[in-house]
Amino acid sequence: xxxxxxxxxxxxxxxxxxxxxxxxxxxxxxxxxxxxxxxxxxxxxxxxxxxxxxxxxxxxxxxxxxxxxxxxxxxx
Length: 76
Prior knowledge:
There is one protein chain. The protein is mostly helical. The chain has a domain at about 45-75. It has helices spanning about 1-35, 45-75.
């Protein structure tokens, strides 16, 4: 019984981690695409755009993980 609960917790943490990574990559790619293809902006990816993209990716990961944590608490 305890082994099953630990297995679920580990699988939940693995899922949370993989979803967090996916959210980070999605935020990074969407931000770089915005800076690269949005009309009116210079179509150059510079260091400022890369830093902003990393920050947006980190913010997306944090939001996604906090949202998943709240859903997990509600489910218990």
